[in-house]
Amino acid sequence: MDLQLEAYAESGVYPFHMPGHKRNAFPMKNPYEIDITEIDGFDDLHAPEGILKEAMERAAKVYGAKQSYYLVNGSTCGILAAISAAAPQKGKLLMARNSHKSVYHAAYLRQLSTIYLNPVFSRFGIYGAVSPKEVERKLRENPDVDAVILTSPTYEGVVSDIAAIAEITHKYQVPLIVDEAHGAHFGFHKAFPQTSVRLGADLVIQSMHKVLPSLTQTALLHRNSEAVLPERITQFLDIYETSSPSYVLMAGMEKCIRFLEEEGNQRFELFTQRLSDFYEKAKGLQKIHVMTKEDFSSEEIFCLDRSKIVISVKGAAISGSRLYEMLLKDHKLQMEMYSGFYVLAMTSLMDREEGFERLYQALLEIDGNLLCKEEKPENNFGFLSEFYLPKEKKMELYEAMERKKTTVSFSEAEGKISGTAVCLYPPGVPALLAGETIDRDFIKNIRKFRKYGLNVKGIADIINERISIVSE
């Protein structure tokens, strides 16, 4: 693997993917020379009293949080700890349907009853925002909810109205948790949305490595109120986070926080200018379309994070996977991900002007070689919204996951209880969960996905059309 990593670093491929340092190194010793454990003078992450306590206090000051926690197991351990601290065992969780899998894992581990918020599904095949009205309706209908969690921004940069949602959850005296993993850069420049930390969310989880110059699996958990007690958070971080935290990772986190303090303003100005220049030039593309906030209605999104460059092929004679392949093979540009109808380029503070120019020139060349601007039938993925319609829940997720399973053919599965979660990957949002009913439309759409060559996760055998169900 080390040889492959070295070869990739020297290949000339430009990284429009995470991590946010984009292979630009901060001055740091050889990691083997500074890889230590909790020896004298270096504090203890699970009982900080010295340098780690000071480092986390610095992070809290930079983000405006009451208290911040270093996470070296990524946002995943922060989400697990936040939900576990906010909701009691066998409590009730109101969660966005497009939540990260760690939210579902927390519901399973804590045996939580789940109620779902269904974000708007945009006409571009991208999950939109969670409506504040939907949050209030669900809280009114479920007065025993213990916590609310949603994702903002999404993978594609869609932001919900966190200030309005926080006001609603607090009216019902329910803590709001925001998975802001993709928004650690929020709040530092007017070109980007404000961070949920300053908009009233009680707990906010951010992945530093996604957009900031920090090493993979470094993240922060921010506590902003007394709605969730700090001792509860530390109790569950002690469970979910490693007992041997990497000092290399934590040193990188501290360097990143100092970087934001000392160079952040200058870097954000440069970053936003490069993004603006790219978006302005991209307006001239005729068949490929770089999406902006103006492409969505106010019902679909509240705001859009410009650092996520979503390149739509919905009106072009090309698929997302084909564009992704051309960018990599013909232009040495590695994208973050693709779907059937768009490609995502992940940018960060550390992206160079060269990268943006190479991406624009590649898109310009590809755009010029496409034959037709009209939408083709094979690119019409309107049935996706039908795929993500809510399914009937027959039992709780944790109950279904503990039950005995069997595998049956699609023809036998209709009306049965799913024993698995099924999603399109990426982005990995479940359309069917364990404990929900498998209906005829779901099976019909899975067959369509196979025809279009989309990547379906969770089907036991898609070629022979077999799926896991809960045994009767």
Oligomer: single chain
Mean pLDDT: 93
What is the first-to-last residue Cα distance? 45 Å
Biggest sheet overview: 7 strands, mixed
Please, how many helices? Answer: 16
Q: Low-confidence segments, ≥5 residues, pLDDT <50? A: 375-379
Instruction: State the secondary-structure class.
Output: alpha/beta
Strand order across the largest sheet: 2-9-8-7-5-3-4
Percent helix:
25-40%
Overall 3D form: globular
Strand content: 15-25%
Total number of strands? 20
Rg measurement, Å = 22 Å
Describe the protein.
By secondary structure, the protein is α/β, with parallel strands linked by helices. Helices cover 37% and strands 16% of the residues. It contains 16 helices and 20 strands. It has helices at residues 2-9, 31-34, 51-63, 74-86, 101-109, 132-141, 162-171, 208-211, 230-240, 247-282, 320-331, 353-369, 384-387, 397-402, 410-413, 440-452, and strands at 14-16, 67-71, 92-96, 113-117, 147-151, 158-159, 176-179, 203-207, 219-223, 289-290, 303-304, 308-312, 333-335, 337-338, 342-346, 405-409, 422-424, 430-432, 456-457, 466-470. The strands form six sheets. A seven-stranded mixed β-sheet has the order 2-9-8-7-5-3-4, sandwiched between helices. Strand 3 (92-96), helix 5 and strand 4 form a beta-alpha-beta unit. The chain starts with a helix and ends with a strand. Residues 375-379 have low confidence and may be disordered.
